[in-house]
Structures are given as C-alpha cells and as structure tokens.
Inverse folding.
C-alpha cells in the first residue's frame, strides 16, 4: 500500500510540475499568454486556445506570420484583432485580417 501511495504521489507531482512549466516557462522567456475568448479567430485559433505572444520588430515579420498589436499603446491587449502578413513587394505590404468580421 505504501508503494502505491508513493507512485500516486510521484505521478501527481509530475503533473503539477508539467502544468507549472507550461504556464511559467513562457513568461520567463518574455512571452505573454492570452486565451482566445471567441470564435472570431477560427479556423486558425479555436475558442479556449492559448496564444503565446512575443514582442518583435516589424522587420522580423515574414509572410504567413500572424501578428497582434496594441491599439493606442494600451497594455490591456485582447486578442480580437489578428493580422497575417499576406504579401510584400516594392510597392508595399498587404495584411489580411484573420478573424471574422464583427
């Protein structure tokens, strides 16, 4: 019985450590986490998905990347506007809205 309790305790400890790692390691790496609250980002991001966001320069964005941004430098960013870099050329850059219009 003691062996069984030790095995269950070890399994629970591993589960707690994995959950802590998933939640906190991204923050230590400078990433912010946001939860998708509505279906407006589907099919790319489903309701309940966790999105990791890192600050980057516009020069680092490549075709196919999805971006989020602050409006008026408001730090209370909510994932309700997502754009995908669609095309770049000598005449400019084309961004495509990835959510559904609301």
């Amino acid at each position: 019985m003691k062996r069984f309790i030790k095995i269950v305790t070890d399994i629970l400890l591993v589960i707690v450590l994995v959950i802590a790692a998933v939640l906190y390691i991204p923050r230590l790496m400078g990433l912010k986490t946001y939860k998708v609250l509505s279906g407006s980002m589907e099919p790319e991001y489903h309701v309940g998905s966790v999105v990791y966001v890192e600050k980057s320069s516009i020069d680092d964005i490549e075709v196919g990347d999805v971006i989020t941004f602050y409006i008026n430098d408001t730090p209370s960013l909510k994932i309700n506007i997502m754009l995908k870099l669609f095309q770049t050329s000598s005449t400019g850059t084309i961004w495509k809205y990835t959510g559904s219009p609301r």
Q: What stands out?
A: The longest strand covers residues 83-89. Residues 24 and 31 are 10 Å apart (CA to CA).
